Amino acid sequence: MSSKIFTFKVSLVNGLYCPAKGEEIFRVTEVRGEKSLYDFAETIVGLFGFDFDHAFGFYNNIKNIYMSDELYELFFDVPGCEATEGAKSVELTKIEDVFKIGKKMGFLFDYGDDWVFLVECKKISDSIPKCRYPRIVEKVGESPEQYPSWDG
């Protein structure tokens, strides 16, 4: 039996570069539901051309991630780190165990620069034979630099 494919719209919401009002920067991607949230985080970061070099988490409170009651953090999986109370593992939790069609979560990458992405599950379908996942389905807007130079 093949894994279900989850289609997500991932939009850049905030960070060192904040999209201008009316400007959209997003990617639509398809990923296997059996993959971990850790794998999904790596995919999200790669969609925007960022280095996967910081801690991250998924949060269900879109307006204020720090008030989330469903959260998954890398800190949970790193020995010696303290995760937020109630946080669960990103390495042990599968995409298919968290998302259903229409569900949205905030994805925070890099707790210093606060890159925030809105992750929305748009569709769940069967995999296409011989298709490689994850894959980009749509790309809108240019990715900002992860580490912009502040020199003039």
Please characterize this protein's 3D structure.
- By secondary structure, the protein is mainly beta.
- Helices cover 7% and strands 34% of the residues.
- It has 1 helix and 8 strands, in the order ββαββββββ.
- An 8-stranded mixed beta sheet has the order 5-4-3-6-7-1-2-8, covered by helices on one side.
- A hairpin with a 5-residue loop joins strand 6 (104-109) and strand 7.
- The longest helix has 11 residues, at 37-47.
- The protein is globular.
- The model has no long low-confidence stretch (mean pLDDT 92).
Write the layout of secondary structure elements.
Layout: E1 4-14, E2 26-32, H1 37-47, E3 56-59, E4 71-73, E5 88-89, E6 104-109, E7 115-126, E8 135-140
Give the structure's gist in a few sentences.
The chain contains 1 helix and 8 strands. With 152 residues, it is mainly beta. Strands 5-4-3-6-7-1-2-8 form an 8-stranded mixed beta sheet, with helices on one face.
Strand content: 25-35%
Order of helices and strands: EEHEEEEEE
The residue fraction in helices comes out at under 10%
Low-confidence stretches: none
Biggest β-sheet: count, sense, barrel? Answer: 8 strands, mixed
Describe the strand arrangement of the main beta sheet, using strand numbers: 5-4-3-6-7-1-2-8
Please work out how many helical segments DSSP would assign. 1
Shape: globular
Looking at how many chains there are and whether they match, the oligomeric state comes to single chain
Number of strands: 8
Terminal CA distance reads 55 Å
Mean pLDDT, all residues:
92
Instruction: Supply the helix-strand structural class.
Output: mainly beta
